[in-house]
Amino acid sequence: MKTILLLALSATLLIAGCDRGGRDPVFDDSIKGQTAPDFSLPQLGKDTPLKLSDYKGKLVLLNFWASWCPPCRVEVPDFVAMQSKYGGEKFTIIGVSIEGKDEMMPFVTANKMNYPLTYGQDAGNKLAATYGDPDGALPYSVLISPEQKVLDIYTGIISKEKFEKILAKHL
After folding, report:
1. pLDDT digit string (tens) for 119-167?
2. Can you tell me the distance from the alpha carbon of 59 to that of 89, in angstroms, rounded to the nearest whole number?
3. For the chain, what are the domain ranges?
4. How far is CA 84 from the centre of its chain?
5. CATH 3.40.30.10 fits 31-170, yes or no
């Protein structure tokens, strides 16, 4: 009985964590049209840090996520498919996990995530705030132009259909 109660409580807290307690999260869209702030964070599978400036010349979807966030888990398979289809010289997704490497690895491996990934709870949350998500609501994505300007922000799940429309408009 204790195990069931503990599991139910854990599930409730994890789900609530995606939207920061059930209240409407605050987003700052004043970053739209501004130069995207550069960053340098640990890069999964690489010895060198991941820097936004290394992707100048590409359309970038910067996606903030966590493996424990149910909406994030829903959109990742579509992101993997879209990266396979469109990723390359002109476009990439960059995933910013707001959890540690060990916590994210089972999900990354199981979903064969095929785009650059960075991690770190504190650093990821600070970066999300810099990009207009001070509450750390997930999932949260920022579209960045090849010239490194913020084009748009997206809150919640980006469906494959919506993703196709975004790329058709900007590629």
Report:
1. 998 999 999 999 999 999 999 999 999 999 999 999 999 999 999 999 9
2. 9
3. 31-170
4. 17
5. yes
One-character DSSP codes across 28-50: -GGGTTSBPPP-EE-BTT-SSPE
C-alpha to C-alpha distances, 125 to 4, 47, 134, 136, nearest whole angstrom:
31, 22, 8, 6
pTM: 0.86
Closest CA to 81 of 156, 169, 164: 164
Tokens of 65: 């996520």
Q: How many CB atoms lie within 10 A of CB 110?
A: 10
DSSP state at residue 52: G
Alpha helix positions (H), the chain: 2-18, 70-86, 101-110, 121-130, 160-170
